[in-house]
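Continuing the series of single-chain predictions for the mutant panel. This is the parent chain; the variants come on the following pages.
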Amino acid sequence: MAGRILIADPTATNRIVLKVRLAAARYETIQAHSGAEALALARSERPDLVVLDSHLPEGGAAICARLKDDPATRAIPVLVLDGAPSRAARLAALRAGADDVLAKPLNEASLLALLRNLMRTRATVDELARRQVAEEDLGFAEARGGFVRPARVALIAPTGETGLAWRRGLAATFAGRISTLTRAQALDAKPAREVPDAFIIAADLARHGDGLGLVSELRSRTATRHAVIVILDEANAPARVPMALDIGANAVVSGRFDAEEIAARLDTLLSRKLETDALRESFDHRLSLATRDPLTGLYNRRYAEAYLKRVAEESARTGQPFALMLLDLDRFKSVNDTHGHRVGDEVLVETARRLRDNVRDIDLLARYGGEEFVIAMPETGLEAASTAAERLRRVIGDTPVLSPSQGKQVAVTVSIGVVLCAADGGAAPGTSGLIEQADAALYASKTDGRNLVTFAGGCAA
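Parent structure:
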């Protein structure tokens, strides 16, 4: 399943229709007929997303606010549906913490794109939560500081005059540092401290639709990869919503620039963004020395095993599969014997870089020992794991490593063993057992000729 969604709607027909539409996209659904039932189910079932009808007896915005006030459900994305959303109702839902508001009748492409977007957000939040728990298990947790700096927001409008008008309007409703930028300025390299936390981008800039292209560019750059991006589509073109969300926008606002709506959206989006940024920074700072391999900069074996335990436990709880890979450079001893240990270290560093560039943000990549690496991939089934493993094998083996110290090309390949764990809601599999299965598959790749991917038999949690 793609994820589990709680539908809260007082009308049974509406719940059934939405359930059918979501089931076709492989989502599992839970249903509630009232706000009280939705709150109880959200706490007990911990769905990946909550869809609230605005006409619940208790009020969709009120239920959203209660979900966001509860530490147990605060991280769950909330989507509010409204048959005839007035501006006041839309603002009330957004100010209550709703991630978005959709009007009925629903545009299916926009709905599914928004669900995909919110599921990606939830996966990132869950990943950071796993890291936080692993940090606590290793004894490195510290209280976070209370200071929160003002958010930096950049406005990218079709003209300079329009940008200044947007800035004046937003400054009256949003407490932050607001600037106007051109497309070129947004793409310029800047010191990290000056990179905007959020971009408000017109869908149409110098040319029709080129604001959407800017989203892809910003997402591809390290400095702006985690920035909040809101697209303003004044043309109100329905086809743009799924396109913008799928290429990386956090939200799409249709119609003219509404400073109050933009501010309400920024409050929710930036609150999450600044919190996750702080978690990333504190985690990396405190654990880098204790859990990082000094040569490659990857996580080390100690951290990998603590992290893998959490992935297995979460898989057992949610029923989502995950994949574990062990990768070992082939005939690495001969690299050291032929070229020297300095070149061997350079090969390890380059291998780590290539692997890092070809795994997802939510995946764990660690140096497990010597020339061996481990990758844990949450929420990954057989097809995705197979594709990823073959890609990694080619990334290492298809291009020789250039030794900076000797200026020579060193050809290396990698053998990979993969174990796929399809949990069924029972007890989590043991970490040592998973590693043993992946190691047996890796040994098979070695004995069958190297430079191969071999899958072990699956495990059931």
